[in-house]
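Listing S7. Sequence submitted for prediction.
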Amino acid sequence: MLKHSSRGQSTLEYVILLGFVVAALIAMGVYMKRGFQGKLRESTDQIGEQYSAGNTTSEYTTTSNMTQTESVSGGGVSSSSSTSKQNRSGSETVSALSAE
């Protein structure tokens, strides 16, 4: 009978130990998340100036040309072809961002 009691005690000890490990991992999760977010922010800060709608001036000219040809022959048989061309030119300027 003592053997059954000892086996139950060992199982209980393993369950309690596993509970402590899980609790420690949950508690560390908050700090790991903060560390990861800090590293991510540091990396984005090192990239440099980012796009900012208020500090960006854009001027583009877009030209579109389209030619469409349709031929209808006797008996209602038709064929069509089209050609499209688009050109875009211009510039984009980002003014200096102020550190706040």
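Caption to Listing S7: primary sequence and predicted structure tokens for the chain studied. The first strand starts at residue 56 and ends at 72. The chain has a mean pLDDT of 81.
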